[in-house]
UniProtKB/TrEMBL annotation:
Chain ranges of the Ig-like domain: 497-587
An individual GO BP term: immune response
Database matches in Gene3D superfamilies: Immunoglobulins
Leader sequence segment: 1-24
UniProt-listed PANTHER family: IMMUNOGLOBULIN FC RECEPTOR (PTHR11481), PLATELET ENDOTHELIAL CELL ADHESION MOLECULE-LIKE ISOFORM X1 (PTHR11481:SF125)
Name of the featured protein: Platelet endothelial cell adhesion molecule
Species: Oreochromis niloticus
UniProt GO MF annotations: transmembrane signaling receptor activity
Bilayer-spanning residue ranges: 596-618
Entry superkingdom: Eukaryota
One of the record's GO cellular component terms: external side of plasma membrane
UniProt-listed InterPro entries: Ig-like_dom, Ig-like_dom_sf, Ig-like_fold, Ig_Fc_receptor, Ig_sub, Ig_sub2
Keyword Signal: yes
Length: 767
């Protein structure tokens, strides 16, 4: 088989194996993981403990998947193992110790899917007793000793302690169950050495019992320190002291020793043989002088101490002043004095006192007494007392001269209103405390003591009567001070609250005409200055503001117009209160000249209308004359020189009212219904009647519904014209009659008739 064929077979095998692996991949589910501690959770040290991890896993095949178990203690991994079976996983703790105490958990991991059991606590009680070993049981004083302390069978983090007669000597920490240390025993005799240990866990520390005691015998060194001080009797301040430090019972050998001389914490001298030290005795306040002599050899140190009392030659001086309170520029007395002195050594006269600074001090004649003038600012003094070369200084005396009260001021914080509380403030410059007294019209009101800087004295008062009131303040630095400051008099005017406000309008609101000056006068009861404000209702902006010391003020609108008609009111305030008047309704009437102008205009208009009416009337008469002149009237037998008259046959007011003059002859017109039929005989008969001319008047139709024609249903009115000297109808002796037709455009005579309420009641003409 060739190489290519083998390669192909290998690839095919890999492919078939991969396919089989994919096909045979199983599914699983971790249902639960449980940790069991056997034999129990609480055990004693040395017990074999088993941690059993039980897991329930559901799989799709009989053969389970690979499992990885992990044991955790206090959230830290202790042990991990991978198994292929479904059996319980077991972790053994052989010979359990206190260090094994903690919280344990079991974690199962299958192909990345993990589950953690609940935590179980294991408590192991009891530590083994430590064992102590020493290299030597007999040593010389200062010689080193090596000790070993063992905690049998224990594991963990250890702290070992080593003790000498129950006094701890050293401490060693580590992870091993045994520790070593070296120490020196500095004193001779029998020493009992023991040890103990503690084991630290994540949660707590567990102590062990004491180890066995090991006895060590220490041989003491024969060297002894010696301290001598002279004089050995009563020592006074200023005496010279001789102090020596040495070693005794020292046997010469190759080893040396070293001496140390100290006073308290101050090292005076050191040396390898006897040490001598000279000094002047200086007492310490409430303490004796303590000296220490030490000898050191082979890391062994021995010492001796002595304390001596030094009698004070004289006490530290004290500096006092009188008087205790002093003001700038005043004379004071400073006294420097030492209260105690050793009379066995000095007299009081041996003490010399000096004051610092000592420039220009006046002599008082007594030792330690100085007269000093107080400066303008703070200053310090000290004094000293000296005897037999010993000098002592007093404490510093700080002197703060007081400042007399000055620049006393008085003020009032609020406005002074009748029967209301006011606040009066008093303040001045000067040293504290300051006593203030308030006077009202030279009568004392009260007192205040101020003990803080930049603070005012506050007084309260109530004024019950109007008028001018005077206040003043007095101040002094203390009740016993002889100098008193006084403020100027503060005069205040009491403000009386406003009341009884009235608003007057001139002229009266019912007699105000355009063009006049309208004056508002506002008055109140109270005290000024008063601020008056006038308002128009509906507006928050005052029309005028005026402040005056009077209790009244006025506001003028000039000239007034119809637009000024409205309601007005005023307000007044004086710092005590604010009052408001009632509203005043102002109605501005028309000006008189406007009224006269309207009357004149009306009269002129009426005159023009009358003139036009007269002209129209005259024109109408002229037009009727012209129309009558155009009528063609032809009488058959007119009489010469007789005027032609035309009368209505009905003698009524209606028919007689319409008359017009034609050629200075009075003419009356009456309507006559045209006969339906006429025969020739009748016509011939009519020819024998007087000459009458019939005129057919055609009237234009009236558009006035109140006007009714004389006859309904026709536009033709027949009128009979008859010659008559007086306008009266002649006897029915008529002449020939001729008809004439009037134009429609002629002026209608009926429009000049007197007013008739109904034309229907008029009688119709008789045929």
């Amino acid at each position: 088989m060739g190489l290519p064929q083998r390669f192909i077979l290998v690839l095919l095998s890999i492919y078939l194996y991969s396919a089989s692996v994919v096909n045979t991949q199983q599914e699983f589910k971790i249902q639960s993981v449980k940790l069991i501690i056997e034999p129990r959770n609480d055990v004693t040290a040395g017990t074999n403990v088993t941690l059993r991890c039980q897991a329930t896993v559901s799989t799709s095949t009989e053969k389970g998947p690979i499992r990885e178990y992990t044991i955790l203690k206090n959230d830290k991994i202790v042990y991990t193992k991978t198994i292929g079976s479904s059996e319980d996983f077991v972790y053994q703790l052989h010979n359990a110790r206190v260090f094994s105490t903690g919280l344990y958990q079991c974690k199962l991991d299958i192909q990345g899917d993990t589950k953690l059991s609940k935590a179980q606590r294991l408590n192991v009680q009891g530590l083994s007793q430590p064992v102590l070993h020493l290299e030597m049981n007999v040593v010389n004083e200062g010689e080193e000793v090596q000790a070993t302390c063992i905690a049998p069978g224990e594991i963990g983090s250890f702290i070992f302690f080593f003790f000498d007669n129950d006094e701890q000597m050293s401490r060693v920490e580590g992870l091993s169950n045994q520790a070593k240390t070296t120490f020196r025993l500095s004193s001779g005799g029998i020493h009992k050495i023991h040890c103990s240990y503690k084991i630290r866990t994540a949660e707590d520390t567990f102590p062990s019992t004491k180890s066995n005691n090991v006895t060590v015998s220490v041989k003491e060194l024969s060297i002894t320190p010696v301290l001598k001080i002279s004089p050995d009797s009563t020592i006074y301040e200023g005496d010279h002291l001789n102090i020596s430090c040495s070693a005794q019972n020292f046997h010469s050998s190759s080893e040396g020793y070293k001496l140390f001389l100290s006073q308290g914490t101050k090292l005076l001298r050191t040396g390898n043989s006897t040490i001598n030290h000279n000094m002047v005795a200086v007492p310490k306040v409430s303490e004796a002088l303590t000296f220490d002599c030490r000898v050191e050899m082979r890391n062994v140190e021995k010492y001796t101490k002595k304390a001596i009392s030094v009698v004070e030659l004289f006490s530290v001086p004290s500096l006092t002043m009188f008087p205790t309170e002093i003001f700038q520029g005043e004379i004071m007395t400073l006294t420097c004095n030492s209260e105690r002195f050793a009379s066995q050594r000095i007299n009081r006269e041996d003490l010399e006192y000096t004051l610092y600074p000592s420039k220009n001090l006046p002599s008082s004649g007594k030792p330690g007494v100085f007269n000093v003038k107080a400066l303008q600012n703070d200053f310090n003094y000290t004094c000293s007392a000296e005897a037999k070369g010993i000098k002592k200084d007093s404490k510093t005396l700080m002197i703060r001269p007081k400042v007399h009260v000055s620049a006393l001021k008085i003020s009032i914080e609020d406005k002074v209103i009748l029967k209301k509380s006011i606040t009066i403030l008093c303040q001045s410059n000067g040293s504290l405390p300051i006593n203030y007294t308030l006077f009202k019209d030279n009568v004392q009101v009260g007192t205040k003591v101020i003990r803080e800087r930049n603070r005012q004295a506050v007084f309260m008062d109530v004024i019950n009567k109007p008028g001018e009131i005077q206040y003043r303040c007095e101040a002094k630095n203390s009740l016993h001070s002889n100098k008193t400051g006084s403020s100027q008099h503060l005069s205040v005017n009491v403000i009386v609250p406003l009341s009884l406000m009235t608003l007057t309008v001139i002229p009266t609101p019912l007699a105000i005409s355009e063009g006049e000056d309208l004056r508002f006068i506002c008055s109140v009861n109270g005290t000024g200055p008063v601020t008056f404000k006038w308002y128009r209702t509906g507006s928050a902006v005052p029309l005028q503001t005026n402040t005056t010391t009077e209790t009244y003020s006025s506001f003028v609108i000039k000239p007034v117009s119809k637009n000024d008609s409205d309601k007005y009111y005023c307000e007044a305030s004086n710092g005590a209160n604010k009052v408001r008047s009632e509203n005043v309704d102002v109605q501005v009437l028309m000006a008189l000249w406007k009224k006269m102008l309207i009357i004149v205009a009306c009269l002129l208009l009426l005159s023009v209308l009358l003139l036009v009416a007269s002209m129209l009337y005259i024109k109408s008469k002229r037009d009727r004359r012209e129309a009558a002149a155009e009528l063609s009237v032809k009488p058959s037998s007119p009489k010469s020189d007789d005027p032609l008259t035309v009368n209505l046959t009905h003698d009524t007011d209606v028919y007689n009212a319409a008359t017009v003059k034609v050629d200075r002859a009075e003419v009356s017109v009456w309507s006559k219904r045209k006969p339906e039929t006429e025969s020739d005989d009748e016509i011939s008969k009519m020819s024998n009647e007087p000459n009458v001319e019939y005129t057919e008047v055609v009237h234009a139709r009236s558009t006035d519904p109140d006007r009714v024609p004389l006859r309904k249903g026709t536009d033709t009115v027949y009128s009979e014209l008859q010659n008559s000297p007086h306008g009266a109808a002649d006897p029915p002796d008529y002449g020939s009659v001729e008809y004439a037709e009037l134009n429609r455009e002629q002026f209608e005579i009926s429009q000049y008739h007197p007013q008739v309420h109904s034309y229907q009641d008029l009688p119709e003409p008789v045929d």
